[in-house]
Amino acid sequence: MALINNRQSLLIIDKQLTLYETTEPIN
């Protein structure tokens, strides 16, 4: 269970990072 919760938290962090990267101007 702990591994599943850890994986979910990592996925949430990854989504937040991708959202932050998309808000930043790439060009």
* Principal-axes shape call: rod-shaped
Briefly note the structural class of the backbone. mainly alpha
Measured as a percent range, the helix fraction is: over 70%
Question: Any idea what the radius of gyration is?
Answer: 12 Å
The description of the largest β-sheet is: none
Average pLDDT reading = 76
Order of helices and strands: H
Counting DSSP E segments of at least 2 residues, the number of strands comes to 0
Beta-strand percent range: under 5%
In angstroms, what separates the terminal alpha carbons? Answer: 42 Å
- The residue ranges in which pLDDT falls below 50 over 5 or more consecutive positions are none
Instruction: Count the DSSP helices.
Output: 1
